[in-house]
Structures are given as C-alpha cells and as structure tokens.
C-alpha cells in the first residue's frame, strides 16, 4: 500500500502503459498504410490509424477485470491526453480544444462500435466499409479498404495469442501489415 501512495507502484504501472502505448503508436505508423494503401499522411489520417490500433488492443482486453481493465483505462486516458496535446501543438487554442476533443471522442467511440461489430461477426466486408467511411469518406471506392480490413482481422486474431499476463506486463505484439 505504501509503495502505491509514494509512487513506486505508479511508476511501474506507468512504465507498462507507456510500453503498450508505444507499441500501439508504432503499429499505427507502419509506412505501408500510407504508401501502399493510401491512408492520408495527415493528422486526421494518423488519428485513424492510431484509432484502428488502439481498437485492436481494447478489443483484445475487453471484458477483462483487474489489472488489464485498469491498464485499458489508463491507456485510454493517455490516448486522449496525446490527442489534446497534438491539437494544441498544431495551434488550436484553449477555447477550441474542448469542443474538438468532444468531437474526436464521439468519432473514436463510433469507430470502436463499428469495428467491434464487424470483427465480432467476422465480417471483413463490413469492416472494409467502416474503414472506408472513416478514412476516405470522400471517395466512392477506396482500394485500400479491403487489404486494411484483412490486416485488422489478422491482427485481432494474432492478439489472441498474447496472454493476459504478457499484456499486464507491458508486452504487446502487433503483426506488421506485410505479415501473413
């Protein structure tokens, strides 16, 4: 108890959250998404890919209790803190940040719901449509949607092999886009 009060437990937990978040961000920054699939290399395009990879983690740990539930909440907090920081970094003022954060939260949780529904149903076509709608809403047909949906399905399945203990220790193995 005293370790937690005086920060030693918090430091360890923060190191775990940082390690997981770093892996999620690295997964989202794979060059193939932008170069091969045509995901826009813009702040919004990067938000979309970060959302996809954060979804993969949250989907893996949903319905878990205890440490994984706490870590998921801390990662969610870090995700939104990072988003807040990014908005300020690109010049959004103090008055505009809360409004935009609410918009991004609605966007993220909407994506979480549609991606969860498609992945749970094993419906790659529905997932591709959701990804197209979110990443390229202005295009009638986006050729990158189907390969990205296939990757998300493979990545979600691969994450099932990562044990709860590994995740709670900060180990997250995301497959690369090129990996079968």
From TrEMBL:
Naturally occurring in which organism (per UniProt): Chelativorans composti
Every Ubiquinol-cytochrome c chaperone domain range: 36-172
Family: Belongs to the UPF0174 family. Belongs to the CBP3 family.
Lineage of the species this protein comes from: Bacteria, Pseudomonadati, Pseudomonadota, Alphaproteobacteria, Hyphomicrobiales
Name recorded for this polypeptide: Ubiquinol-cytochrome C chaperone family protein
């Amino acid at each position: 108890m005293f370790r937690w009060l005086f920060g030693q437990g918090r430091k360890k937990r923060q190191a775990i959250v940082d390690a997981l978040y770093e892996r999620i961000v690295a997964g989202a920054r794979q060059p193939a998404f932008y170069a091969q699939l045509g995901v826009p290399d813009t702040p919004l395009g990067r938000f979309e890919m970060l959302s996809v990879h954060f979804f993969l983690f949250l989907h893996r740990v949903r319905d878990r209790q205890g440490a994984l539930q706490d870590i998921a909440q801390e990662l969610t907090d870090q995700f939104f803190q990072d988003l807040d920081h990014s908005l300020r970094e690109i010049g959004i003022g103090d008055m505009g940040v809360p409004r935009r954060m609410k918009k991004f939260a609605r966007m993220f949780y909407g994506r979480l719901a549609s991606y969860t529904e498609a992945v749970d149903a094993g419906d790659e076509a529905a997932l591709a449509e959701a990804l197209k709608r979110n990443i390229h809403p202005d295009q009638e047909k986006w050729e990158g949607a189907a390969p990205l949906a296939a990757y998300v399905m493979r990545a979600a399945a691969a994450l099932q092999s990562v044990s709860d203990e590994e995740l709670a220790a900060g180990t997250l193995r995301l497959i690369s886009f090129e990996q079968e």
